[in-house]
UniProtKB/TrEMBL annotation, chain A:
Keywords associated with the record: Electron transport, FAD, Flavoprotein, Membrane, Mitochondrion, Mitochondrion inner membrane, Oxidoreductase, Respiratory chain, Transmembrane, Transmembrane helix, Transport
Name the UniProt record assigns to this protein: FAD-dependent oxidoreductase domain-containing protein 1
Function: Required for the assembly of the mitochondrial membrane respiratory chain NADH dehydrogenase (Complex I). Involved in mid-late stages of complex I assembly.
Predominant location category: mitochondrion
UniProt entry tagged with the keyword Transport: yes
GO cellular component, one term: cytoplasm
One Gene Ontology term from the biological process aspect of the record: mitochondrial respiratory chain complex I assembly
Keyword Endoplasmic reticulum belongs to the record: no
Gene Ontology MF terms in the entry: oxidoreductase activity
Xref: SUPFAM superfamilies: FAD/NAD(P)-binding domain
Subcellular location: Mitochondrion inner membrane
Positions of the FAD dependent oxidoreductase domain: 65-455
UniProtKB/TrEMBL annotation, chain B:
GO biological process, one term: mitochondrial respiratory chain complex I assembly
Coiled-coil ranges from the UniProt annotation: none
Assembly behavior: Interacts with incompletely assembled mitochondrial NADH:ubiquinone oxidoreductase complex (complex I).
InterPro entries: LRR_dom_sf
Name of the protein in its database record: Distal membrane-arm assembly complex protein 2
Family: Belongs to the ATP synthase subunit s family.
Any Gene Ontology CC annotation: mitochondrion
Gene3D superfamilies registered for this protein in UniProt: Ribonuclease Inhibitor
Role this protein plays: Required for the assembly of the mitochondrial NADH:ubiquinone oxidoreductase complex (complex I). Involved in the assembly of the distal region of complex I.
Organism this protein belongs to: Canis lupus familiaris
């Protein structure tokens, strides 16, 4: 049944594409016959290349210099910067493979859109400062002739981080770093906090840090669409399909100290076209792993982590999907227009949503409570038991809130140190990562895209040095210590 | 690489000349020579697709660059005469007006000239700026933010003042008492939300902001956020006669005619 159903498509592709496309278990002896038939048909049909019956536009090209796996905000940003930094114009061919054009499960559109500089690692602060500049001038970066300007709906309301007695010293030193990097952050005592935001209960708060500029939230969908529109106008190719396999070759070498290493190089990416069994091999020079929460699987496909534990070969990409809930509620007596993005010492966060006294927020569960990431269903008890009590304690008005709606999305969670993984793999030499941002990937996307493009085109980081975020840290055990992970 | 091929179809298909499509009609009526010309223009445009596109992109970039140029700070004047003179010079250059403490308003004449006497007032702070209709943008605010004693700031109908600009005004919080944003096309409620930093504000004009989605509600929320400030405003108040007259007076030029 399946065979008969998919046969016409299979035949079609073969005719139009010659030997390029194959199906799961294709029989080589048939290929000769088919190309004969193809020749015959072509001689009968008028008009050489004009072949309306065999539409193959849904298939990816057979070659591409760079294949980007994942068309989320990170993947598109890499595509944008590759095209922007390439010299001369049109020098490289970039293909973005995205399996879901509705982005129904992509983290990008399920995030809450926040951007902040209140991190503790200088690189994270720099990334986000670069991104805010990008967002501010988005209509210069992503301008497309004849298309209307983008409105990313940036709410410059700032982040308000609260610290308990225990965390106060750490917050103070973090703010010092942030200011050094150029972020506009101020410290507030509980007294000042009460004056500025009378709706906050300062019990248990010893210190607060508040972003005066460059912080807030925006519309991720708009950024995604803007990038998409721009890269399309720059000549990036899109393909609707799933990356299922890599064909690579290995090279055994010996280091100076006599250790044996196996270097791998990917030659072909197999793209499975949606709703069909056929796939198309795409020859490529470089693969970029920007598959977000699923990038761990992509790394596995490339053979990363297949080796004895404790060796570089056996080091996996520690990125996995972690389900995070976002709840929306209504509270008529809730905080007003000035409400920033508040992060409580308990880890609970919330922000205003629109003008109608609606708010949204959530909380990351503890390691033991991690929900099953198999689906995107929302656990409403989690709000009742974990989120609401902390909310009501911090903002007494929230005692009478009314839950409105909710959704869940996946963090591209880096289980090693909750920070991004950027740059090439040391052994699979033409796979580059841009993933693992664990809840702050959206805001870093514009800068990370640039960093990866620099790495690909120039061989080193230029604008922002992201060497602490290289893959090798997993093998060396060097964690990037970021204290402000939400 | 893929998409821009499309225009080629405008030229190529020969069978199109016979069918009376929209283009076919006009062509059929045109004499032979004309037809050739028309075709070769299309052919030319098709061949030059990338060049034309690059040119248009360049023009777009140039426009943005011009804005940057207009808004760059006058570093030399600031170093030589201090921030007040530099700020004043910047505003006058853009066609606005400034008022030094205890002095008259200074503005440029119809041809954009103004006297440089104010450069002598190095230590006298600027207390009011009228940048109505000027091309100030985010970058240009640098010059204004250096005016630490600024009490009155009018930014009516400024085409480039947006939410990002409003988020930068907090350094003026201790001095600013009056702010007018009337008629700025790019300001929305999202930017207005960060005016809560300006705790000394006594008067705020947010009338006629087309990008604000709910003018009435926004005004109420802004009033709640700035309890000590008189908020002049939103569209629905315009219906009231008294409000309209008052508003008109507010907007008129700082120099009594
Ligand atoms: C609830 C929530 C709140 C968040 N809040 C914030 C925030 O406030 N600020 C912030 O900066 N970040 C936030 N994030 C994190 C942010 O959303 C992510 O870090 C970021 O979107 C990652 O982008 P991405 O492009 O890597 O991933 P995605 O958007 O998930 O894109 C990956 C794409 O790859 C595709 N893909 C996967 N496998 C394959 C394959 N084999 N073949 C083809 N395509 C494939 C997927 O379909 C997907 O579209 C939040 C995330 C969540 C879940």
């Amino acid at each position: 049944m399946l065979r008969t159903a998919s046969w016409p498509r299979w035949g079609r592709t073969l005719l139009a594409r010659g030997l390029g496309s194959r199906r799961g278990g294709s029989a080589p002896d048939q290929n000769g016959k088919v190309s004969e038939i193809k020749k015959k048909i072509q001689s009968v049909l008028p008009g050489g290349a004009w072949n309306p019956l065999y539409d193959t536009s849904y298939l990816p090209p057979e070659h591409s210099d760079v294949v980007i796996v994942g068309g989320g905000v990170i993947g598109l940003s890499v595509a944008y910067w590759l095209k922007r930094l390439e010299k001369p114009r049109g020098a490289i061919r970039v293909l973005v493979v995205e399996r879901d054009h509705t982005y129904s499960r992509a983290s990008t559109v399920l995030s809450v859109g926040g951007i902040r500089q209140q991190f503790s690692v200088p690189e994270n602060i720099q990334l986000s400062l670069f991104s805010i500049e990008f967002l501010r001038n988005i209509n210069e970066y992503l301008a497309v002739v004849d298309d209307p300007p983008l409105d990313i709906q940036f709410n410059p309301s700032g982040y308000l981080l609260l610290a308990s007695e225990k965390g106060a010293a750490l917050m103070e030193s973090n703010v010092k770093v942030q200011r050094q990097e150029g972020a506009k952050v101020c410290l507030m005592s509980p007294e000042q906090l009460r004056n500025k935001f009378p709706w906050i209960n300062t019990e248990g708060v010893a210190l607060a840090s508040y972003g005066m500029e460059h912080e807030g939230w925006f519309d991720p969908w708009c950024l995604l669409q803007g990038l998409r529109r721009k890269v399309q106008s720059m000549g990036v190719l899109f393909c609707h399909g799933e990356v299922t396999r890599f064909i690579s070759s290995s090279n055994h070498m010996e280091t100076r100290s006599g250790e044996e290493v196996t270097l791998k190089r990917i030659h072909e990416v197999h793209v499975k076209v949606d709703h069909s069994l056929e796939y198309q091999p795409v020859e490529c020079a470089i693969v970029i792993n920007a598959a977000g929460a699923w990038s761990g699987q992509i790394a596995q496909l490339a053979g990363i982590g297949k080796g004895p534990p404790g060796t570089l070969q056996g080091t996996k990409l520690p990125v996995e999907p972690r389900k995070r809930y976002v709840y929306v509620w209504h509270c008529p007596q809730g905080p007003g227009l000035e409400t920033p993005f508040v992060i409580d010492p308990s880890g609970v966060y919330f922000r205003r949503e629109g003008l109608g006294n609606n708010y949204l927020g959530g909380c990351s569960p503890t390691e033991e409570e991690e929900p099953d990431p198999g689906n995107l269903e929302v656990d409403h008890d989690f709000f009742q038991d974990k989120v609401w009590p902390s909310l009501a304690q911090r903002v007494p008005a929230f005692e009478t809130l009314k839950a409105r709606s909710s959704w869940a999305g996946y963090y591209d969670y880096n289980t090693f140190d909750q920070n991004g993984v950027v740059g090439p793999h040391p052994l699979v030499i033409n796979m580059y990562f841009a993933t693992g941002f664990s809840g702050h990937g959206l805001q870093q996307a514009p800068a990370v895209g640039r960093a990866v493009a620099e790495m690909v085109l120039q061989g080193h980081f230029q604008t922002i040095d992201l060497s602490p975020f290289l893959f090798s840290r997993f093998y060396l055990g060097e964690k990037v210590q970021e204290h402000n992970i939400v | 690489m893929a998409a821009p091929r499309a225009p080629l179809h405008l030229v190529a298909p020969r069978w199109n000349a016979g069918t009376r499509g929209i283009r076919g009609l006009s062509r059929a009526a045109a004499p032979e020579g004309n037809q050739k010309k028309g075709r070769s223009l299309l052919q030319f445009l098709a061949d030059r697709f990338y060049d034309v596109q690059a040119l248009r992109e360049y023009l777009l970039r140039k426009q943005a660059w011009k804005m940057h140029q207009k808004n760059r700070p006058f570093t030399y004047i600031r170093e030589r005469y201090g921030p007040y003179a530099a700020g004043a010079y910047f505003i006058l250059k853009l066609g606005g007006a400034v008022k030094f403490q205890g002095k008259e308003w200074i503005r440029s004449n119809a041809r954009g000239h103004f006297s440089l006497d104010f450069l002598k007032l190095q230590t006298v702070p600027v207390e009011a700026v009228d940048a109505s209709g000027c091309a100030v943008n985010y970058q240009g605010l640098d010059s204004l933010l250096a005016l630490k004693e600024l009490q009155v700031l009018w930014l009516q109908r400024c085409p480039h003042v947006d939410d990002w600009c409003l988020s930068r005004l907090h350094p003026l919080a201790s001095s600013l008492q009056e702010l007018s944003l009337a008629g700025c096309p790019k300001i929305s409620e999202r930017g207005l939300a960060c005016l809560h930093h300006l705790q000394n504000l006594r008067k705020l004009d947010i009338s006629d902001l087309p990008a604000v989605s709910n003018p009435g509600l926004t005004q109420i929320l802004v009033e709640e956020m700035l309890p000590d400030c008189k908020v002049v405003g939103a569209d629905w108040a315009r219906g009231l006669k008294v409000g309209q007259e008052e508003q008109y007076q507010d907007i008129t030029s700082p120099i009594p005619a």
